[in-house]
Amino acid sequence: MSKHLFGMILTHQGTYANNRGETEGTATTLQKVLRNGDLYTTVSAEAIRYALREGWQAKNYQVNRCLKNHRECDFRDREFKEWHKYLDDDALGYMHAREETLSRRGLLEITRAISTTPWRGEIMQNFASPGSNPGVTHKNPIPYAVEVHDTRYQYGFALTPAFLGRMGFQDKEDKLTAKEKKERLRQLLEGLCSLRRVGGNHSRYLTDFSPEVIVLRWTDDPAPRFLYCFMQDDHGGISLDPLFRRIDGDIEAAELIIGTPLHIPELKALKDKGANFLPGVKKAVNTLMGMVQDDDLAVPQSQG
Predict the structure, then answer these.
(1) Between 20 and 30 A from 85 (CA), which of 75, 152, 174, 286?
(2) 3-state class of 90 per DSSP?
(3) If pLDDT is split at 50, 70 and 90, which confidence band does 97 have?
């Protein structure tokens, strides 16, 4: 029986803004969504996927699209004839630009990242250096405004590792061995745990987008059932109450692996019910990898 992996990630707290992209007049804006009647800032799944690909390339993992710089990338295989050899084509999918039927759905599904606190309208005034904008003819500093948000972000992901190296249910050919699938899963999780430059102001100064808390669920259940399970109070305290209320109902505690150095009130009760708790996100990933068996990575014959 193939297993499903679901995860929720809570980033470190940082000050987020955009350097470029959407603007209103001279103000650089943040993307936002309405959630429970409040305005929350958000980061796209596409930005997270770009950062993943960049991190995999830096680790010298086998990727098809290699970034030459922030504007250009090279393809090792533009026709995607050997997609299974590349971590990014296999996990993130692809579509041929001139032949839309030549495509692969991304196995790694990622939600939008949403801030844990509402955006209250914080705007900062800055000045760009004289001459930094070719469209401005005067030699004075150039004023501009930037929307900023001091917050954490939470986002989720889903993957059925058995389908790594397979085109789909009807494809009877596994192009990867169980050992190769497990190594690809490790590389994929390592990328999520090492995210750095996810969009926004990271080209000018650093904000850590890596997880400070990770919740993993290794299960036969095909639905995640715990997306956006983090809550943050007005004093920065983190709670996992939405997840705790699902335990013994739709989610078995023994399916959970939680890694964090933070104090979260529900952790002791979750551990008492059978959840695995580790003091860091890397140790949580290592614990999960130790639980993965070859049979977990096989597609049942009835589906193949």
Answers:
(1) 286
(2) helix
(3) confident
